[in-house]
Amino acid sequence: MSTTDSLLTRAADLVTTWSAQRVVLAHAGAQSHAEGPGGGLAQALDRHGIGALGASLADGERIELTDSDQTVVLTRHGASGALRVSWTEGPTYEQRVVLPAPLHATVSTTPQGSAPAAVATTVGAPVHDEAAALAELARPLVIHRRRLYHSDAVPPEAREGWVPALPIAALGAPSFRTDHNVKAAYVAGAMAGGIASVALVKAMAHAGYLAFFGSGGLAIERVEAALVELSESLGDRSWGSNLLHNPNEPAMEERTVDLLLQHGCKRVSASAFMTLTPAIVRYRAAGLSRGPAGEIVESNHVFAKVSRPEVAARFLAPAPANILEGLVGAGAITADQAQMASEIPLARDVTAEADSGGHTDRRPLSVLIPLLTQLRDDLSREHRYTVPPRIGAAGGLGDPRSIHAAFSMGAAYVLTGSINQSCMEAGTSERVKQMLSEAGMADVATGPAPDMFELGAHVQVLSKGSMYAQRARRLYELYKAYDGVHEIPEKTRERMEKRLFMRTFDEIWTETRAYWAERDPSEIVRAERDPKHHMALLFRWYLGMTSRWARMGEASRVRDYQVWCGPSMGLFNAWAKGTPFAELSARKVADVADALLTGAAFCQREQIARMLGVGRGGRLA
Ligand SMILES: Cc1cc2nc3c(=O)[nH]c(=O)nc-3n(C[C@H](O)[C@H](O)[C@H](O)COP(=O)(O)O)c2cc1C
């Protein structure tokens, strides 16, 4: 085949693969182009990454892909490439990128117009162990007669397809890695009470991953101490902290934002928000500035944790005008920051949280991701975003296949929670970690949520080895049935004091009173006026202590442990069996992340191989 013919065939393939309207492929003075319906270049780049595009270029080749609103030009020079991306009505980016080994090591050098040399095709031996070859993520494979080969074993004309090199960095949205300066699109989610500890966040950051400190439920002084330690010790590495919406204590939310800004926390996981507050908008807008060309530079990143489209819509839209105006009026942000905030989404990363540990709506991920992706696309069009926000996945992710499935559904990144609680760095007791490591997928139950007890809200908890779900549910039934502890029948009261609380109601009230006197004295005033509220505070003492006993590993209270946990824990344990992660001592958060992503990348390569016919003879089971 002549150089031009070869380029033409490949241009035709590439215009389809990359869903572009036009592809121009050029090498050593020869050039070919192909046209297609287009309309999917941005998504294809998001999904496959620049690395996969680079792998299709031989040294010295240049490819230009054009779609309705975007042009991408990549030229390979050895192991690197010059990349230029430009939008019709937007900026142009130029960057050098590292590229994987080229699939087309050489192009034919047969002079144009001369007859092709009649060479017999010699094909080497196929790979011996297909699964092992697919597990070598950095090495592209080629397909010949439904078998896998290393690329040097099959000449280009005999190749029927290829399985690209797929490093873990290729999973998810490439923009996630660049925006957050991380090695892969994997996040360790916040876990309240410092369970997502400073040590956990540091371990992830040092390994090149993002993690959120679990500030929920901690006294403000402890939150500040953690922020100081993280910002001082991590330098330029990426890390984040949690901002929990707190409708009962808006001042706490404001104070937390003050600390986040003061200590340079650039990434915030916003959770439990049903409506937007000035605090979260202030955090985002205060981090906006203009670059040399007047472009918007975003330095405070909001990750919104959502499980419903109506909440997602608030974060995917720009911050509301009335809140921005209020903040400008109060001198908290400038008029230009308000202007910039009105042009970009409030959150650039929206995490769709399915059935998870802790607070959960228990929605299926397979419903949430497509719904939120569609919503994102609609809102991006409506608000004419230059760069659309990303949708990530959380809830039920505990092994390579579930993570691969989330990426296959289009998740830009994945976020895990439960499985990290059983890791060495988690801020909970060895006893809890041991219990978690023995859990199966069905060893979870829902029980009352301590922070929203009166509303009847639930959290998902570990049920194997603990009676928290049943005991706390019984307290909720009593709360609903009676208007104060004085109404609870004497026998029931006695049983509660002796067996459950192991203290009298009076003793508990003394302790509870002291707690609220420091935190919010209006609670005491209300409780002394309203016996039902008094009862709620007494019961919430128990609910609060159950998670504390668990974190402290209090031996006499194992049956009361409140351990937030989702079914993903059981999935992880099942996968970990027979691997080093079966041992608790091997469960280090970043090693777990590496292993799960490596497995997910393997699944992706396996799927490509299957789609191209490999394994139909039974080799890839
Ligand atoms: C022990 C525990 C505590 C959690 N605390 C918080 C929290 O304070 N804030 C938050 O946004 N999410 C919290 N989560 C949710 C996680 O960040 C994550 O979204 C969730 O665990 C993902 O689902 P999975 O448990 O199936 O991995 C918690 C989860 C667990 C297991």
Could you explain the architecture of this structure?
There is one protein chain. With 621 residues, the chain is α/β, with parallel strands linked by helices. It folds into 3 domains: 3-107 and 126-170 and 601-611, no CATH class; 186-428, TIM Barrel (Alpha-Beta Barrel); 444-569, no CATH class. Strands 10-11-12-13-16-17-19-20 form an 8-stranded parallel beta barrel, surrounded by 7 helices. Helix 13 (400-408) links the parallel strand 19 (390-394) and strand 20. The longest helix is centred in the last third of the chain and has 23 residues, at 589-611. The chain is globular, with a radius of gyration of 28 Å. Bound molecules: flavin mononucleotide.
How is the biggest beta sheet arranged? 8 strands, parallel, barrel
How are the strands of the biggest sheet laid out side by side? 10-11-12-13-16-17-19-20
**Total of DSSP H or I helical runs spanning 4+ residues:** 22
Arithmetic mean pLDDT: 92
Are there runs of 5+ residues with pLDDT below 50, and where?
Answer: 105-119
The CATH C-level name of the largest domain is Alpha Beta
